[in-house]
Input
Amino acid sequence: MGAFRISGGHHLTGEVSVRGAKNSVLKLMAVALLAEGRTTITNVPDIMDVTIMGQLISRLGATVDFDSEQRQLIIDVPAELEQRADYDLVRQMRASISVLGPLIARLGVADIALPGGDAIGSRGLDMHMAGLERMGVKVTSEHGYLLASAPERLRAASIWLDFPSVGATETLLMASVTADGTTVIDNAAREPEIVDICEMLAGMGARIGGVGTSTLVIDGVDALHPTTHATVPDRIVAGTWAAAAAIAGGDVTVHGADYHHLEIALDKLTSAGADVTTASDMFRVRMEDRATAVDIVTLPYPGFPTDLQPQFITLNAVSQGVAMVTENLFESRFKFVNELVRLGADVRIEGHHALVRGRERLSGAPVVATDIRAGASLVLAGLVANGETLVTEVHHIDRGYDSFVTDLQSLGADIERVPLPLAASL
Ligand code: EPU
Output
């Protein structure tokens, strides 16, 4: 996988296209397990996490065929599924927990390795568990595995989430679509990826009301059927390109994105001094001068996405002025700031606030990607750093960004993937 070597100082100009959202497609692959037969998912990004999820659902018994040219997945689901998601795959990708809902719905039993925390936070599962227990599922944990079992068909329940958790909403949605009766999930997450899952489930015969609101009402049906579904565009990848244009300066048009899903981030870029224009499935960001720092507060959708927080800290780090960035979702998501500081950024962390004082220019250095968004942001920082920046541990970036390096090259960035032995000598 190597490292990325970036030579800073080039504006970005041109056009890029975004594919389907990582945080949707991984769950859509789990959703496919709910129906026996052949489901097709299109607009699939060619990223590591799709490969890992493919391996996971293959082990559960499905046949997975990914056509990387067509960006299309065909998932053939048998009548009988295995019940166990092993640690070797779950530890590589926390989204593996998404198979819990479909397995418990189809088999009445699931053994899922506990994913544990990760670089961005402790990442609890309590809301997933509490909701399932209300539906008649017994949940215990033993030897690092979460063991879930339901003696009979899941029963509908009224569930209030303490927090609009994306993962808990998804687990409970997938568990409830074939439960007995009408389930209500209140304070549900409203992310576009949740809407996408609801739309795919509806295409399979599920009956879900309140889609896109914080109250989901699910009338359980006896069984679902396979479908064909196109993945919603990746708003975080699109937002990363928008931030890249503002950080490096230039003129970038992003195709295949739904700008409605990014309104708050694009509005922040306008406040920062960018000229943002939108049309049906594209937007364009032009930045001629140095940006002005903008305050950010992350919140569940439609608030500012935590997955764009590192990119906007990077933007503030090279802007004029001072900004406060507040992170409300993941307690360790500022960890990457230590790497940004190695590039010369002036950022002070106080609890879940980061005070960022803009610097005119950063200074290239070797840095380590600690998670996917941190990794992408360090690359963006390298675009405006003097000299060379070397980002290692880029497997994090490969987890979720399709064609990141080649797209950046096409926009005029001086970036290449270098093999690790060479990287080590720099
Ligand atoms: N939480 C609990 N208990 C629960 C569930 C969540 O305490 O039962 C806490 C988490 O620990 C976290 C917060 O609630 O502090 C938010 O968690 P949420 O369940 O909403 O997030 P997730 O499903 O774990 C997904 C994305 C993240 C994205 C968040 C928020 C996937 C695979 N991951 O995580 O994406 O940041 O929603 O939008 O969909 C990324 O792509 O870089 C990424 C981290």
